[in-house]
Amino acid sequence: MEYTREEKEEFMLEALKEAEIALANDEIPIGCVIVKDGEIIGRGHNAREELQRAVMHAEVMAIEKANQYEHSWRLLDTTLFVTIEPCVMCSGAIGLARIPQVIYGAKNPKFGAAGSLYDILTDERLNHRVELETGILEVECAQMMQDFFRKRRQR
Amino acid sequence: MEYTREEKEEFMLEALKEAEIALANDEIPIGCVIVKDGEIIGRGHNAREELQRAVMHAEVMAIEKANQYEHSWRLLDTTLFVTIEPCVMCSGAIGLARIPQVIYGAKNPKFGAAGSLYDILTDERLNHRVELETGILEVECAQMMQDFFRKRRQR
């Protein structure tokens, strides 16, 4: 489904709300929502420390919820909104869930695998390719990360 | 911890037992065990269809179990045995869990990310690098995959 710029910003604001949950738990503040036909079918935030589960990144949590909602591992006709560029694991998971469209806020130059270190989502050798858009609420998404790491360094 | 060739084959046989569980469920037959100090602390098999969860590959299931067992997302001093070369998602998950050693049976030329399509586990740009060994019970691990896909094509 195609969304307007305004709709995309609304969904990214929902992803930012998820990031705020992570922030309140003193986790790296990244949030994600998965949308189908204009409705959020999965939400997630980074919960690695809270749950002590290595794979519990925002995107994986949202994919797990959306799989449950759909009773299917295939998330066809969905759009995944995430505040920060997905890492290697999450980019792989997005492909495995067959998510056709990904929109992220800000780049992650150190760990990003959707344009920074790798181009996993658009690699023609893999059997699933994703339509990728970046820069929606980029400043807000990046700012939340910068504030978190600045505070952490000050401690 | 260093294991002898015989010990490695014993652990790979345990991973193959997990692959057989997947096979019995008509899933792509891949199995995994995570070992610490000579003891298996997490087992997993591909359960994507059974559980309808896109991320439920053998390695992720084993990492989740080991995280639970250790009450920690960090799987320090562990060795992960998996029958087939990990995909992009699982290679990323192995790094995120800080698993220091990975041993796999057979290559996966189409989807492998630990030597075939990518070298995620040994990429010096990432903040965790893995000691990688391949070829333990390679024939047995590859055979199980070949049998599965041959039967699937015949249907």
TrEMBL record, chains A, B:
GO molecular function, one term: tRNA-specific adenosine-34 deaminase activity
Gene3D superfamilies: Cytidine Deaminase, domain 2
KW Metal-binding (keyword) present: yes
Domain of life: Bacteria
Function: Catalyzes the deamination of adenosine to inosine at the wobble position 34 of tRNA(Arg2).
GO biological process: tRNA wobble adenosine to inosine editing
InterPro entries: APOBEC/CMP_deaminase_Zn-bd, CMP_dCMP_dom, Cytidine_deaminase-like, MafB19-deam, tRNA_aden_deaminase
Domain CMP/dCMP-type deaminase: 6-133
Positions annotated as active site in the UniProt record: 59 (proton donor)
Binding annotation for Zn(2+): 57, 87, 90
Needed co-factor(s): Zn(2+)
Cofactor: binding comment: Binds 1 zinc ion per subunit.
Main EC class the enzyme belongs to: hydrolase
Organism for this UniProt entry: Streptococcus anginosus subsp. whileyi CCUG 39159
Stated family: Belongs to the cytidine and deoxycytidylate deaminase family. ADAT2 subfamily.
Coiled coil: none
Gene of this entry: tadA
NCBIfam families membership: PRK10860.1
Subunit structure: Homodimer.
Catalytic activity, reaction form: adenosine(34) in tRNA + H2O + H(+) = inosine(34) in tRNA + NH4(+)
EC numbers on record: 3.5.4.33
The entry's keywords: Hydrolase, Metal-binding, tRNA processing, Zinc
Protein name as it appears in the record: tRNA-specific adenosine deaminase
